[in-house]
Design brief:
The complex is a heterotrimer. In chain B, 34% of the residues lie in helices and 26% in strands. By secondary structure, chain B is α/β, with parallel strands linked by helices. Chain B has a seven-stranded mixed sheet with strand order 3-2-1-7-6-4-5, with helices on both faces. Classes of the chains: A alpha/beta, B alpha/beta, C mainly alpha.
């Protein structure tokens, strides 16, 4: 790749923490945030989930937002993560008019529509929430809390949305259309996709066990994360340092089925291969793969096949961090990218919790804490529609 | 460079600017287009309206291009834009969970509650392994579409794109304005 | 039984949007998946919903479907034995 793309700020919120410090502490100490449902109002109490440990009211308080304001949970989590990312990159509101914001989400303001849908059609109240149902309004609400960005774009490609937001931002920087773009995604748990995933029979009633022979489905999670992408010149001019380099990325279509992954992992294979090619890096230089690893029987077989095809017998250490957070769907690409950046900075391999038994022809994931110097990490995020993306995150040259 | 384009609204179909005659309107028009121009892909009937729209529009576009061999390729991307995401499919799925006494969430309805399923459907049909994206914007804006597609050509793998506007509010309100774009 | 098989074929055509099919086109002894009707995993889930909706049969494990959906005859037989409505 011609010009390096620097990551000069990051912010994250998920079931394991409301900021990077809490997140790092949980990752290093193997502390999962998955547990019984608390905040989502549903009859489906049988499914463990990775909820962010704050109510909407508590989030509003943390953000100094008045209690009567119209908000959605996706936007509130987005604001918490964006706040951290902007501060981290030393970006202030007066600089935002020159900065773009690209966010991935798929359920958007569905949480509020679920809460008030019967009011809309019955007593015709709470109609002000209709305007915040769509995905774009969540991105705008998130961004506008901090000032006026140059542009705001929303990407919706299911569980690869945030990864694709990162790719779109990177392409804009490579085109010379922007010096700084804030990219990532946010998604709250809703009844809509909890029921939908249940209808697809891919939810586990126990904590999820990616790459384990006994895996029986995923746990849903929620959260948000944003990354500040910046050109080298801009970072130099502003006197900020790179936390990591986005050295490659790939997006490919599995072209197999609306929701299921192909048995040979074609899309995943192509996405990872493309990321390495763009960075001009050989497979043996990859030190760790943060797998999509949802814990469904289908995904983990398909993704394993893709890794075996690309790396042969020498698949690098790999793990899924979804047992920590649950599957944070549209936000997973950016949340896990931040986990990877923490791993690069602090030299450790995140553990694939709940693993005990290798699957047939599968790869054994990292299941014990390992401290290790890392240089290149692949981070995967795959979405329904066969939309598969992979990011290559690298340690900056000192 | 735009090689071919297709326009479909509930009562109008244009291929490369030429009107196609038809008898039906609304989603029945999409079925008529399928029967007259495709007919051997019964999966069409399982799709939501957005996917049906994208599917027949892309079929007309690719028939206009000709020489269809269905060989696997990764040099062609599928990138669409719209305003209403997957709202028609969302409403349909909601109708399966509306009544607590008759609560049967439909898996087949749920899988279409994402706008990008249509890009996947087109990739599956044509064995495209390249980029597939769906971008939701506030309103139709040629500049946004142009800029995003230009960016996608940054990927050296991508040589051509099926792209453009693909919007569907319900079975009576939809619009496809798509084209086949080649890298200059 | 023949009546149930015919009714089931109609229900399958409706539930799975097999628009161009008539009950007569479905061989009740042929496999529903694989070559047969070209159904996929989502169709299997739809059939599980169909059994619950129309016959009050709840399947917990999607893998169970493999046996039950071998053919319309096998499915009808299973429904006959387990139906609650």
């Amino acid at each position: 790749m011609t010009k390096p793309i620097l990551i000069t700020g990051t912010g994250v919120v998920s079931a394991i923490g409301l900021d990077k410090n809490e997140t790092l502490d949980a990752l290093l100490n193997n502390r999962s945030g998955v547990g019984p449902l608390v905040y989502l109002k549903t009859d489906h109490k049988e499914f463990p989930v990775g909820e962010v440990k704050l109510s909407d009211a508590e989030m509003r308080k943390r953000l100094n937002i008045n209690d009567n304001a119209i908000t959605t949970r996706t936007a509130l989590m987005g604001m918490i993560a964006l706040d951290e990312a902007l501060k981290d990159a030393k970006l202030t509101s007066d600089m935002l008019p020159k900065i773009g914001f690209i966010s991935g989400t798929t359920v958007g303001g569905m949480d509020m529509s679920e809460q008030y849908y019967l009011d809309y059609i019955g007593e015709s109240t709470h109609k002000e929430y209709i305007a915040v149902h769509d995905c774009g309004s969540c991105s705008e609400m998130t961004a506008n809390h901090f000032g006026k960005f140059a542009f705001i774009t929303t990407l919706s490609t299911a569980c690869s949305s945030a990864a694709n937001a990162i790719i779109l931002g990177a392409n804009m920087i490579r085109c010379g259309e922007a010096d700084i773009v804030v990219v990532g995604g946010s998604e709250c748990i809703t009844k809509f996709h909890l029921n939908g995933f249940n209808a697809l029979m891919i939810l586990d009633t126990k904590p999820c066990r990616p790459f384990d022979a006994t895996r029986a489905g995923l746990n849903l999670g929620e959260g948000a994360a944003y990354l500040v992408l910046e050109t080298e010149e801009s970072a130099k001019r502003r006197g900020v340092k790179a936390q990591a380099i986005l050295s490659g990325y790939g997006n490919a279509c599995d072209a197999f089925h609306q929701t299921a992954s192909s048995p040979d992992g074609e899309g995943a294979y192509r996405a990872m291969k493309e990321a390495l090619q763009l960075a001009d890096i050989q497979p043996d230089k990859v030190d760790y793969i943060n797998a999509h690893g949802t814990g469904t029987p289908n995904n983990d077989v398909s993704e394993s096949q893709a890794m075996i095809r690309l790396f042969g017998k020498n698949v690098p250490p790999m793990s899924s961090t979804k047992p920590f957070t649950g599957h944070t769907t549209s936000a997973s690409g950016s949340i896990e990218a931040v986990f990877c950046i923490l791993a690069l900075q602090h030299g450790f391999l995140p553990v694939n919790l709940n693993f005990s038994q290798p699957m047939e022809d599968g790869i054994v994931p990292v299941h014990q804490s390992v401290k290790k110097e890392l240089k290149h990490i692949l981070c995967n995020a795959f979405g329904f529609g066969g939309n598969d993306s992979s990011l290559l995150l690298s340690k900056p040259e000192l | 460079m735009i090689k071919h384009n297709v326009y479909i609204s509930p009562d109008k179909v244009l291929v490369d600017g030429k009107a196609l005659t038809h008898n039906e309107k609304g989603s029945a028009l999409l079925t008529e287009l399928y029967r007259n121009n495709v007919s051997d892909y019964p999966k069409f009937f399982k799709m939501d309206t957005l996917s049906k729209l994208g599917f027949v529009a892309s079929e007309l576009l690719l028939n206009a291009e000709g020489n269809r061999d269905f060989e696997p390729r990764e040099d062609r991307a599928v990138i669409f834009f719209n305003k209403h995401a997957s709202l028609q499919a969302d409403t349909h799925y909601q109708s399966t969970i509306q009544d607590p006494e008759h609560f049967f969430p439909s898996p087949a309805a749920f899988v279409y509650t994402l706008p990008n399923i249509v890009t996947g459907e087109i990739a599956i049909r044509n064995k495209y392994f390249g980029e597939t994206s769906f971008i939701v914007v506030e309103d139709y804006d040629e500049k946004i579409i142009e800029r995003n597609l230009k960016n996608s050509f940054q990927d050296p793998m991508t040589k051509s794109i099926i792209g453009g506007w693909l919007d569907c509010l319900d079975e009576e309100h939809f619009e496809a304005k798509i084209f086949l774009l080649y890298k200059d | 039984m023949d009546e149930l098989i015919y009714k089931l074929k109609q229900e399958i055509i409706e539930a799975l949007n097999l628009e161009d099919m008539k009950p007569e086109d479905i061989d009740e002894n042929a496999s529903l998946f694989g070559e047969g009707l070209g159904l996929d995993s989502i169709d299997a889930l739809e059939l599980i919903v169909l059994m619950e909706k129309n016959y009050g049969i709840k399947l917990k494990d999607p893998a169970q479907g493999k046996e039950i959906f071998k053919s319309v005859t096998v499915m009808a037989d299973f429904i006959q034995k387990n139906r609650t409505k």
